[in-house]
Each structure stands twice: as C-alpha cells, then as structure tokens.
Amino acid sequence: MESVTEGVLVSGLATVRLEGECSRCLTPLEDDLEVDIQELFVYEDQSVADDDEDLARMQGELLDLEPTLRDAVVLDLPFTPLCREDCAGLCPECGANLNDEPDHTHGPGVDARWGALSGWTTDRDADAATDPAEADTDPAEADADPAEADARLGETVEGADAGAAPAGD
User: Fold this and answer.
1) 3-class secondary structure for 118-138?
2) What's the mean per-residue pLDDT of the chain?
C-alpha cells in the first residue's frame, strides 16, 4: 500500500486456490493461481468526475479488497481448464475417459439417422448378389468397348426424342 495524493494505491500479488473440472474429461482439478493486483482507492471526501464512477473508494480508514480481488481472479481464470494439454476427453458414444483407455473403439456402427436406409439396395446390388460372375466385374471394364457405349448412348437418346413434342407446336 502506498499513500498518494488522490488516495491509497494498493499493489500486490495474491495466490488463490482453484477447484473445478477438466473441460474435456470432467476430471476434478485443483490448482493455484497467482494474480497481480493494482487498484487506487480514492478518499471518501475526494470529488471525482462523473466518468470515474468505477473508482474504488475508501470507507473511512477501511479498504474493501474483495471486489478488486474477485475481478482480478475472474479475468485470469482459464476459459477451458484442462487436466493436461493433451487431454483426449470423453468418448462421444459411451462416455469412456479416453485418457484411461487410449485404444478405445466401437465397432463400425450405422448412424441412427441413416439406419432406415440400411435395407435398401440398388438393382445392380441385387444383380451382383444373384450372379456371382457379375459381382467381380469392374464398372470401368463394362464400358471398355467405346462402340458399345456409344450404341447404348444412342439408344437412350433416340428413346428420349421419341416422346418429345415438336418444338413449333
């Protein structure tokens, strides 16, 4: 503490004990936090401009350090406290602590949102299931002959043109 013309200047270092939990794995945490404090407490009878409403005031010969200390501690608190820098957190499916079980896995599951589609198959899948020779056919090899591909394409285009109305009508 130092007496100045406006009031009393309080400077110091405060150590506080923190208790909480890791933001990733929810493990309980305890830590010490050191906070620098510097605050000017103006005398009670000192006139202050309206823009200096936030100045701390002395009450007689007493100083209330609680608001000053609380503000300094809150500003220095970690936003996401971690038990360690490389904390793996919790498994999103079952909640297991991945720090304790680093090789933790689940089988290849189907996303519940897509589960209703699991029974659907395409015609090609059904044909491949009934004809084993077709199942081994590579789709790129099926169109290996360009003449066949052009012929199939021409049939498709002619079929589409047959149902079309004349443009002038």
Assistant:
1) CCCCCHHHHHHHHCHHHHCCC
2) 77
* pLDDT single digits (tens) 123-132: 776 666 665 5
Q: Phi then psi for 168, rounded to 5 degrees?
A: -80, -15
In this structure, is residue 169 part of a structural domain?
A: no
- For residue 27, tell me if it sits in a domain: yes
Contact 87, 24 (CB under 8 A): yes
Binned at pLDDT 50, 70 and 90, residue 114 comes out as confident
CA triple 32-33-39, angle to 5 deg: 145
* Residue 50 is assigned to a structural domain of this protein: yes
Residue 167 lies in a domain: no
Q: In whole angstroms, what is the distance from residue 63 CA to residue 1 CA?
A: 11
Q: Where are the beta strands (DSSP E) in the chain?
A: 2-3, 7-21, 28-42, 56-57
Residues 6 and 59 occupy one common structural domain: yes
Total number of domains constituting the chain: 2
